Amino acid sequence: MPKTYTIKQALVIKKGHKWHNKKVDLRVEKGRIAAIAESLPIKGEEISGKDLRVSEGWVDLRCHLSDPGNEHKDTLMHLLDTAAASGFTAVVTLPNS
Fold it and tell me: Shortest CA distance to 26 belongs to which of 41, 7, 39, 11?
C-alpha cells in the first residue's frame, strides 16, 4: 500500500499554476498530489528540508546506456524504470550508447 506523505514548505515550479513560485505544503496520497495549501497538518510521513522544490518532472540530458551490446550491464527498460522511479519524465541518451 502506498504511503501518505506531507511535504512541508516546498517551492512549486509550474508556470501558469496559481502556486507557481510559492512555498506551500503538499500532501501526496497513493502516488498523487491530494492537497496543496500554504499550511497543511502533518499526515503520514513528513518530508521537510532546506530549499525543497516540486515540479512535474525532471529531464536527464546525459544518460549512459549500455544497450545494445552490453545488455548484461544495463537495458533500456531498466534505465527507463529507474528514471521514472526517480522523478524523471524524460531522458536523453548520449550518442555513444
Answer: 7
